[in-house]
Design brief:
It contains 23 helices and 16 strands. By secondary structure, it is an alpha+beta fold. It has two domains: 37-297 and 307-394 and 401-472, Amidase signature (AS) domain (Amidase signature (AS) enzymes, Alpha-Beta Complex); 477-597, Serine Threonine Protein Phosphatase 5, Tetratricopeptide repeat (Alpha Horseshoe). A hairpin with a 6-residue loop joins β2 and β3. The chain crosses the membrane at residues 6-23.
Length: 599
């Protein structure tokens, strides 16, 4: 380690000045670095070896590290100022970081993590919460929030985070980048602050956590993996078994069928339809992981939460709280740090965890490992959503609830509790939020999984784009959306004084959605221009039936009735329009004019 450290040039850089850029869409100020970095520094790689030796495999790449990885001479902050205040600078650099630098990459800074790397939303009470470049009004995800943001914003080529319950996979999904969590025990844990030891390392033994990483490019994700995994060269093999968890995609608030179809078509194109299999994961886990029943009576908000993935996530969180308490409760009690309220509440819950609870969790993990091995064998991949819901809005109160923590990690728990590896892959957008899909392999299948993602990525992106375009076509649109599009076409025709064409579009909108007062009122306006007064009166009356406060409908019906000679009724319409909108000059002038003519 001493010789390795000697090759590292550690240069403390100036922190960014916090240049503020105001965006019109956001009420908060956005930092020039999106709030991703805690501090800038540089760890420079050694010189290239002379020919004919090959250059370092990561030459030319830059990366950032979450503030849980030690760097010689620097205090590791762990997302909490009181932790920084009470700890000395590290005496050596994390093995993972050293390996990457010696592999040719340049480390350019350390990034924000959730308080004590414990959260999952990305919210940070001590620093500004990093801004999600893919969806600025949404949370970036945690615990490795800054690392995901640094990659999404293109400040670095890749970055390091840690992942116990989803700390890499969730922010990767929220920020629309690739995120890889390796199998337990495949990457060195030396020089990383522990959070939940047994969820982060091999055989669930008491070691420190391991690293996951983010990238935008699957080839870079794979190159980093080959350096960190240090596995011997082997011929790339294709998957023989791709299992799509249909029931999981049906639970999504985003278009799950669109995602699963994109995966299906990409797999069929590259590997053939014969390797595809569809599975009800809920039924499979219920059968293969019987110990989940030990938590089946768990309730939240008065309702029983008994889905297998939710129960699996619940067991995972019990372990995380228990092990976090073992690692850090002594320091918390001694220093009385200023903690995120969620951590305080979780520590209170950790005190109530019994040995029986822990034994049950251990049984679930053993059963999960066997279940995933049986499902996938050596050359199989499980396809699941990365997260069940879109990123929460910035400042949302829900992120402090245990329910949110369970929901956000429900699918992540499959790999975490089985020891397998998982990669989150972006799959487009829905409602201006990134959507993603995850691929899971059994423990030890890391290189196989990274190679498969490298192979399938381009076709998956192509199929996801095609699926998005298809869902945007008229056949796939909801009737309400199609009706709005027809209305807008009618408005454009009206502006161009093409009255009959406008009536046609408004009629189309009404056929698609007959409960909109606006559509009838707009068609009434076009009928008035065509001097179709009876039709204008009928459409205005229908609009008023649907919306008693539609001022324009009263004005248009009043005009139609005036032209039909129904003066008394017309005066009543104009007067009622004035009641609804006292400053409406057209209603006032029309009512006064008719009153003078017909007192």
């Amino acid at each position: 380690m001493a010789s390795q450290s000697a090759n590292l040039w550690v240069l403390l850089g100036l922190g960014l000045a916090g240049i503020l850029l105001m965006t019109r869409k956001l009420k908060k100020a956005v930092k020039a670095d999106f709030g991703a970095f805690v501090e800038r520094l540089k760890l420079l790689p050694p010189p290239q070896p002379p020919p004919p030796k090959a250059p370092h495999p990561l030459t030319g790449l830059t990366f950032a590290i979450s503030d849980v990885f030690d760097v010689n001479g620097f205090v590791t902050g762990f997302g909490n100022p009181d932790w920084s205040r009470t700890h000395e600078p590290a005496s050596q650099t994390s093995t993972v970081v050293t390996t990457l630098v010696e592999g040719g990459a340049t480390c350019t800074g350390r990034t924000v993590v959730d308080d004590m790397a414990f959260g999952i939303s990305g919210e940070q009470m001590h620093f500004d919460t990093p801004t999600n470049p893919a969806a600025p009004a949404r949370m970036p995800g945690g615990s490795s929030s800054g690392a995901a943001v640094a990659v999404a914003a293109k400040f670095v080529d890749f970055s390091l985070g840690t992942d116990a319950v989803g700390g890499v996979r969730v922010p990767a999904a929220y920020c629309g980048v690739l995120g890889f969590r390796p199998s337990h025990g495949t990457v060195s844990h030396t020089g990383i602050i522990p959070v939940s030891a047994s969820l982060d390392t091999v055989a669930f033994s008491k070691f420190g956590p391991t690293a996951g990483w983010f990238a935008r490019d699957p080839s870079i994700l794979r190159r980093v993996g080959h350096v960190l995994l240090q596995v011997p060269f082997a011929a790339q093999r294709n998957p023989r078994n791709v299992v799509i968890a249909d029931d999981c995609f049906q639970l999504l608030k985003s278009p799950g069928d669109r995602i699963s179809q994109a995966v299906t078509k990409a797999v069929e194109k590259l590997f053939g339809r014969q390797i595809l299999r569809h599975e009800n994961l809920e039924a499979y886990l219920t059968s293969k992981v019987p110990s989940l029943k030990l938590f089946a009576d768990r309730k939240s908000n008065g309702e029983r939460k008994s889905s297998s993935t939710n129960l699996l996530a619940y067991a995972m969180h019990i372990l995380r709280r228990h092990e976090f308490k073992q690692n850090h409760l002594e320091w918390i009690n001694a220093e009385k740090p200023n903690l995120d309220p969620f951590i305080s509440s979780q520590m209170q819950g950790a005190l109530e965890i019994t040995d029986t609870n822990i034994d049950s969790c251990h049984a679930i993990r053993n059963e999960m490992r066997s279940a995933l091995n049986d499902l996938l064998k050596d050359d199989g991949i499980l396809v699941i959503p990365t997260v069940a819901e879109p990123p929460p809005k910035t400042g949302a109160k829900e992120i402090q609830s245990e329910d949110y923590q369970i929901r956000a990690c429900s699918f992540s728990s499959i790999a975490s509790m089985s020891g397998g590896c998982q990669v989150s892959v972006p799959a487009g957008f829905h409602d201006k939020c990134p959507i993603s899909v995850s691929f899971v392999a059994r423990q030890g299948g890391d290189r196989f999984l990274l190679d498969t993602i490298q192979t399938i990525y381009a076709d998956l992106q192509e199929q996801a784009e095609l699926a998005t375009k298809s869902s945007a076509s008229g056949n796939a649109l909801s009737k309400e959306t199609s009706a709005e599009m027809a209305k807008e076409k009618g408005n454009q025709a009206f502006k161009e004084k093409q009255w009959q064409r406008a009536i046609g579009f408004y009629t189309e909108a009404i056929k698609l959605n007959g409960n909109s007062a606006t559509y009838f009122s707009n068609r009434a306006a076009a009928h008035l221009e065509m001097r179709n007064f009876l039709q204008a009166e009928a459409d205005s009356s229908k609009a008023i039936d649907l919306d008693k406060k539609n001022v324009k409908a009263y004005l248009r019906r009043g005009t139609a009735r005036e032209m039909l000679g129904y003066y008394k009724e017309a005066i009543e319409d104009f007067r009622y329009a004035l009641v609804l909108e006292p400053t409406n000059k057209r209603a006032s002038l029309s009512a006064d004019r008719l009153k003078k003519l017909f007192p």
